[in-house]
Amino acid sequence: ELKVEQNPLFLSMQEGKNYTIYCNYSTTSDRLYWYRQDPGKSLESLFVLLSNGAVKQEGRLMASLDTKARLSTLHITAAVHDLSATYFCAGVREKLIFGQGTELSVKP
Amino acid sequence: GAGVSQTPSNKVTEKGKYVELRCDPISGHTALYWYRQSLGQGPEFLIYFQGTGAADDSGLPNDRFFAVRPEGSVSTLKIQRTERGDSAVYLCASSLGTSSYNEQFFGPGTRLTVL
Question: Which chain A residues are closer than 8 Å to B99 by Cβ?
């Protein structure tokens, strides 16, 4: 059974700083997704990681996948307030299995 | 084109009542998924359909929950004898097929509050 764990669950950052969110999963996942969720809103797809060593970047966010370690990371570079949201990773075996989410707060 | 739509956006009901939540998938998407997101948690899988049939309903918490998709398009999630613990956001997603390689697209969700 696929299980997904994220850490940290809460992250308070200062603007301009860098940080990484970690996503571990327990068994083979066909893909790895990262989503953003703003309060009261639905899920916005950020990245789809397809294979070992995959790296994708969009603005200040970069996601990577190590299938051997069953680990994905979401790296935030020079955080800005607009990045404040909850971030979820999810593995997939037909259905999506989500981590608990990381609530990110970026303060000036 | 239109994305996944869900109605109502908010539903407040009393304990013990029956509710129906509707999902309209993206046109042409044969797979449809229901997830439930409790406050402060990640979404949890409930059920998914391929066409009209439920391919996997292992996430439904108990027999008060039931979902249908009679014509292979719109789906309705039905909850009988609602309990306060059913309060959550119910998310629907659709994809071109049930393969893990088809991305799921999410609707805006229905926020259910059971008083």
Answer: 94
